[in-house]
Amino acid sequence: MNEMNTQTHTAEDYYRQGNQFRKVGDFSSAMNCYMEALELDSESPAGEALRMLQDIMDFYCKDYYNP
Predict the structure, then answer these.
(1) From CA 21, how far away is CA 38, in angstroms rounded?
(2) CA–CA separation, 9 vs 38, rounded Å?
(3) What is the 3-state secondary structure (H, E, C) of 5-43?
(4) Are 10 and 40 in contact (CB under 8 A)?
(5) What is the per-residue pLDDT across 8-63, written as a single tens digit (0 to 9) for each?
(6) What's the rounded Cα separation, in Å, for the pair 16 and 23?
(7) Spatial distance between the Cα atoms of 66 and 26, rounded to a whole number of angstroms
(8) What is the distance, to the nearest Å, from the Cα of residue 61 to the centroid of all Cα atoms in its chain?
(9) Phi and psi of 24, rounded to 5°?
(10) Which of 56, 49, 25 is nearest to 35 (CA)?
(11) Considering only CA atoms, which of 46, 58, 41 is closest in space to residue 22?
(12) What angle, rounded to 10 degrees, do the helices at 11-23 and 27-40 form?
């Protein structure tokens, strides 16, 4: 787990951390942060960010990269 789990953080904190992970391409960590944000605040913008990442992951086709 990341260092955020050792302290009390708000949904906004997790959302921002998720955005940082997403920007560097760490989608798995970003999704985890977004889910944490949603558990704290179901109205968080992390919900939309999580849906967008899930759409990206659903679109990804491993067969294109492994002929």
Answers:
(1) 16
(2) 12
(3) HHCCCCHHHHHHHHHHHHHCCCHHHHHHHHHHHHHHCCC
(4) yes
(5) 899 999 999 999 999 999 999 999 999 999 999 999 999 999 999 988 888 766 66
(6) 11
(7) 21
(8) 20
(9) -95, 5
(10) 49
(11) 46
(12) 170
Position 4 scores a pLDDT of 53
Rounded CA-CA distance 57/13 in Å is 24
**Per-residue model confidence (pLDDT) at position 3:** 54
* Spatial CA neighbour of 36 closest among 57, 56, 8: 8
Q: Roughly what angle, to the nearest 10 degrees, separates helices 27-40 and 46-59?
A: 150
- The larger pLDDT score, comparing residue 37 to residue 67, is at 37
